[in-house]
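REVIEWER CHECKLIST
Item 1: Sequence provided? yes
Item 2: Single chain? yes
Item 3: Sequence as submitted:
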Amino acid sequence: MPFIRAFVRTARMIRHTGGLSEGLCPDHEVLLDAPDERLAPALVAAGGGEYGPAAKVLAHTREAAEWENRDRYVLRLAAFAASRAEWFDAWQYASPHDPDLLLVKAQLAVDRAFASPARAELLREVTPLLLAAAQADPRDPVPWRVSLDHARGTNAPHTDFEDLWAQAVRRSPHHYGCHVAALRYLSAAWYGSHTECFDFAERAAQDALPGSLLKALPARAAFAYLTTGTPRGIPRARLDAAADLAVELSAAYDRGDPWPAEVRNLLTCVLVELERWPDALAQLRLIGPYATSFPWDRLAEDPLGHFLELRDGVRLEVAAALPLRGGPAGSGDHYA
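Item 4: Structure as written out by the authors:
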């Protein structure tokens, strides 16, 4: 019987896998961390040593209070400055007190410190940069997101974390980046627990506006739980509810929309961990060409390669559950 089941499963895969490619971008069209139409020219210019476009796009996010875009752009520009510093050095020389420069500078310093074995010591030296970035524009929540990450790396106690969190939400109560930073601090991998992490994420999702990426915060808590060595303690129903909420959020956006791309990549990973293969395939179709480093870089050294392999694996799992002939799954198959 086990042999017959394995044979039927293989036959299903052979019959159906090809057809399940419909709606998926070809492998060669999938991009990793593709910048949006505003950030892309700034990165191209920075690659040529020019800081002007980067300064301009960040200034616009500050003046228009586009805090979510500002947070994303700061992270990308700091990462770019870590590998290509000429444009950033020129910016510092030309405008050392530019509030946008100060924010990227603080992010870059925190990133470098986290990558060092002397993380806590180096992060303490970064504190003046964080203060300068926060004081440059008192409205801006992004320096407080950087400060929350800084607190996590310096073993800051919960009282310090609460103070920073209060500063962040005072400026932007529903800022996604600040919530993600807080969730990391409260995770079992750092200074909290899986239950604390889920409680925080579910409260934030409940209070979020329709279409807010905060609706996917419980799925992020689920990811942290499911990818631990021995996950236990969180009921399956709670995990499925987190995934369902993120599925609902994803459905509010167009297919191939870059804005929710990271959330959709994260959700796909959670659905795979839960073995909800058809739902995972649906998200892969919605992702379109927009693969993101997170969460795949937490699972493999080659995030894009891992993503593409996972797409194939999901198709195989879905195919294996389909009937060999027409009709509902299992209707004509005694070995379903």
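Item 5: Key structural point noted by reviewer: Strands lie at 31-32, 290-291.
Item 6: Recommendation: ____
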